Amino acid sequence: MMGRINGFAKAAASASLVAGAILATAGPAAAAGPNMSDGAAATGLITLAPVAPASFPGTSPASVLNVNVAGLLTTGVITDTADATAASSTIATVDATLSAVAAVRAAAVTSSCTFDTNTGAVTGTSGITNGRVALVGLANIPLAANAAPNTTVDVTVAGVDLATITLNRQVTAADGTLTVDAIYVQLLNSTQTITIGTSTCNAASVAPVPVLPGMALPIGLGALGLLGLGGVGFVVARRRRTAPAAA
Fold this sequence. Notes:
single chain, six-stranded antiparallel beta sheet, 15 strands, globular
């Protein structure tokens, strides 16, 4: 009988170690940042904190009726959303000032990102409706409705570089998190920036707890169950070692 108890204890203790490894592997997913979005932001001489930020976990959706920052940006309604696997931003009637003779204008701007739970991939996209750089006394510069990621448009007037505009700006962090900016404007040698339509998705937000190759868990016995089983095994083994010898 004692031999059987010892065998059970050893098996349970091994299961506990395996469960610990599983939970350790799952740790980064639990620590992952939220999916989130915001309609507009700016840094530099004129600053604008992220407008209508939405996040998951957190608060979503979020919206404002308009933005009006003199000399920088005006918009119509902004609506931002975020959930466990996606985020999006929608901005109506955009007018961003580049200089006294130039502005970025669009009827609507959108961005979105999605985490595919089947493939583990994060993808993003953006869209611009009737977008253009409006120039006083010169022809407008059209902005692509569905630009390829990181498409740049340089705005030069009379030999002066006014701005660099990045459409569908996509940046992937080391942990796989993808940030999509529908329109990203750099002014004054990049000392002033304007960001319109930002969506961020984390590659690990809803990642499942992995199971080690070749390991089949009994029905109803998950990682926490294995830890409990390991605890029982430890107690049984300890009691067996400390039991007094038979007379």
